[in-house]
Structures are given as C-alpha cells and as structure tokens.
Amino acid sequence: MKSWLIIAILLIGTFVVRLYKIDIPIADWHSWRQADTAAVARNFVEDGFHLFRPTYDDLSSLQTGRPNPQGLRLVEFPLYNAMIGLVYLITGVNEMSARLVSVLFATTSTFLLYLLIRRLMTERVAVLSAAFYAFLPYNIYFTRSIFPEVPAVTFLLAAYLAFAYWMEVKKKSSLWIFGVLSTVLGAVALLVKPTTIFFFLPFVWFAWKKYEWSMIRRLELWTSGLTMVLPLVLWRWWISHFPEGIPASEWLLNGQNIRFTGAFFRWIFAERFGKLIMTGWGMPLFILGLIRGRLKDDLFPYALLVGTLLYVTVFAMGNIQHDYYQILIIPTLAIFLGRGADFLLSPPPSLSKVWTMPILAVCLVAIAAFGWYEIRGNYQINHWEIVEAGRAVDQLTPKDAKVIAPYFGDTAFLYQTKRKGWPIMDSPIDTLIARGATHYVSVQFDDVTKQLMQKYPIVTQTEKYIILDLNP
C-alpha cells in the first residue's frame, strides 16, 4: 500500500475516533479545567476579543487568593481560546465546536509527527509512531477535550519540523524562511503552554548535528532561541500587573514534598505511564524502542525523553494531581512505542517472526482494550443535574445576572449557567450580594441551602436543584 494512502487512512481514523460523544456538555472528566478554557472563548464572543485581558466566569478568590471582580483569567496567552471564539462566531457557542478545534489540532499533530519521524528515522517507524499517537485511548480522550496542551503539542511538533529543515537546507533563500518559521512556531508553543519549554532540548540536538560545538558561536541560533522565549517573558511581565487573575500554581511543583518519594514514582511511572497511558502491555514495546538503535543516530527521541523526565520531576505534584498534564509527553511515548513495534516487525536473525509477530499483536490488542477500560469513565457525565440546573438559570434569570453556584469550587456548574459568579461561597452571603450576586442555585439541599431558602424567594425548585432570588 502506498505511503500516502496509509497516512490518509491514519488521519481519517485520528479524526473519526475522536468524534465519540463529542457533543456532550462540559461536565465530563476534568470539566473544571475545560470549563475555564471554554469560558474564556465564550466571553471573547460575548464581551469582545480582549486578548490581553481575557476573562472567565469565576469572580471568587478561590483560584487566586484575591477577589477577582472582573473575572480575569491570566494563565497561558489565550490564542487557543481565541481560535475557539472565532469558530463560535460561525457556529454559535457550543461544546462540539470547541472540541472539534482540538480534534483538528490532534489530527494535525498526527501528520506532523509522521513527517518528522519519517525525516529522522524510517517510513515505517513514522507510521507506527503516528498510529500510537492517534489511537492510544488516553490520547483519544484528552485530545478531543478542551485543553491548551492539545494545540501546544501541534505547534511544538511543527517547530521541530521547521527547525530540522532549517538545519538541513542548502539554499540560502530557504534558510531564513525555515529559521523564521521555526522561531515563530516555538514562540507560539511557549505562549500556548509555557511548560513546553521542557521539550526544547531537541532544538539543541538539531543544531548540534550540523554545527557541533561551533553552534555556541552561531548568532542566528541565539537570536532564534531568545526570540522564542521573549514573547512568553513579556506576557508573564504583563500579567504580573493583575495578580487577582493569576491562579496559585506553586503547589504544582512539589506540593506535600512528594518529589522522589515512593508515591511520586508509583503515580508517575506505574499509574500514569504504565497503567493509564500504556496499560502495562505497552511497556515491552517502549523498552524495546528505548534500547534499540545506536545512540549517536537517534538522539532526538532521547532528547524528548530527557525533557519528559525533567517535566514530570519539576512539576511533580501537577503531574500526579492532574492526568491531563501528560498530554505533552505522548509524542515521546509514541515514538518509543513505534520503534519497539518496528523492532518486532523486523527482528534480528536471532529472533523469528513466528514469535515476534504474535507478541506484537497481543500487545497492540491489549493496549487498545485495557486502555479503553481505563479511560472510558472519563466520557461519562455523573452529575447531569448541574447541566439541568444551569439551563434553568439561563432561561429564568437576566443575562447580566451574577450567580452563586456552589459546587466545591468546581467551575463546571457555574459554566453551565452561562453567567458569571461564584463556584463557592468564599464570603458570607451578604458580602457576595454586596459584590453583585443576584441569584443562588444549588444541586444540594444542604444546611446552607436550607437556611437561604427560608430567607430568599424561590425562583424554581425541583427534586434536583433550586434557584433563589437574592435581589432585595
């Protein structure tokens, strides 16, 4: 089968498998992070594309430790959110459109990974690596969800490819094109997700292959590297003027002093790498991919691996607490899995295909089956009541209403109301009313809700939720 046909089938498959439950509300796994990202895109449409002062729905002090009356959301530069917002201008605001943006990025990443590995290794390793990226059940779920890591991977792979061309082309007329392109793509990757900085070591490897030690004297390389980082530095300087919009993040590094403890190694390597992503059955392929080949010829994947280990070590608690953090490391794992699978397809003379082919088949089937078993629960919506209550708020309250929607600080409930407000009662009710709260909605009839029911008029009440009018 011709290579173009294989990659066409691969890309179609990448797109199609990610359409599963693509239109469900943002109330699935890690809905709080998806809701925050989608809220910024929705507010771009409703309030204007203010890229340097993006806002979301949360007005509380929960995430930043300070009152945030404007609802500023200052994390990554909101390029991904703006792209979703532009799509919303065409399709209207809906979760399916937002997820389709991620699916298109994931499909592009599959193609870029194929092109990159084909250039650096072989056609078959490229196809296999791209296939693992496309069809690992973990990656299927997370790259059809609304996370900035998804486009960050795409821009990073594109930057690798452009940089590799830059280091290899002979024509002077092409040098500046690929140099500028790789620099811009690298800068965008950092803006979309600053943690991609951990995966910049391959740029050094590409430069080393061409210049070796003389690369430290190449002005164009220093210019490219500094230009990649400068926009992120400027963005971080800008947002430092608005501390109320910057979520607390220090705990992501080494919260509870977990780095290098037994729990750290268990969660990162056994639970995340071994169980959730590669399901254990991928580990033989990964190890084969790790030990095969000559180091001097294949340092690109090892440079990625070093970056991966640095990333999970520095952001130890983040990678343990949030399994979407591993979206960035999937290309690394996919390459080593592809190399391992290629080894079993063409074993050395000492091994027979009679043994290696069945082993490969069993591993592939097991990765797919057990990977789906591990990830299938992520698609489920366990609390449809927040969706129903949110729709009721949208129908029964003014568009400028500000809502208290307590849900243990999870903004997914607040997002469903399509209103700005508070996902937690971080202050007494009178204080929140003074700050502009007009309605209270709850899906739990707890003591606080029951007390408020005695004091404020009921807009509507069902067995699942209640809405109260807080206006004087």
What does this protein look like?
- With 472 residues, the chain is mostly helical.
- Among the domains are: 147-246, no CATH class; 384-469.
- 61% of the residues lie in helices and 4% in strands.
- The chain has helices at residues 3-17, 31-47, 79-91, 95-120, 123-135, 137-142, 149-168, 172-192, 201-211, 219-239, 251-254, 262-277, 283-291, 299-314, 316-321, 330-345, 353-375, 384-396, 411-417, 429-434, 447-455, and strands spanning 402-404, 420-422, 439-442, 458-461, 466-469.
- Strands 2-1-3-5-4 form a 5-stranded mixed β-sheet, with helices on both faces.
- Strand 4 (458-461) and strand 5 (466-469) form a beta hairpin.
- Helix 2 (31-47) crosses helix 3 (79-91) and helix 13 crosses helix 16 (330-345).
- It is globular, with a radius of gyration of 24 Å.
The computed structural class is mainly alpha
Q: H/E element string?
A: HHHHHHHHHHHHHHHHHHEHEHEHEE
- How are strands sequenced across the largest beta sheet? 2-1-3-5-4
Strand percentage lies at under 5%
| Number of contiguous helices | 21
Number of E strands: 5
Radius of gyration: 24 Å
Give the N-to-C terminal Cα separation: 72 Å
Sheet with the most strands? 5 strands, mixed
Q: In percent, how helical is the residue content?
A: 55-70%
What is the arithmetic mean of pLDDT? 95
Poorly predicted regions: none
- Taken from the alpha-carbon principal axes, the silhouette is globular
Tell me the layout of helices and strands.
Blueprint: H1 3-17, H2 31-47, H3 79-91, H4 95-120, H5 123-135, H6 137-142, H7 149-168, H8 172-192, H9 201-211, H10 219-239, H11 251-254, H12 262-277, H13 283-291, H14 299-314, H15 316-321, H16 330-345, H17 353-375, H18 384-396, E1 402-404, H19 411-417, E2 420-422, H20 429-434, E3 439-442, H21 447-455, E4 458-461, E5 466-469
Parallel strand pairs: 1-2, 1-3
Antiparallel strand pairs: 3-5, 4-5
Helix pairs in contact: 1-4, 1-5, 2-3, 2-19, 4-5, 4-7, 5-16, 7-8, 7-9, 8-10, 9-14, 13-16, 14-16, 18-19
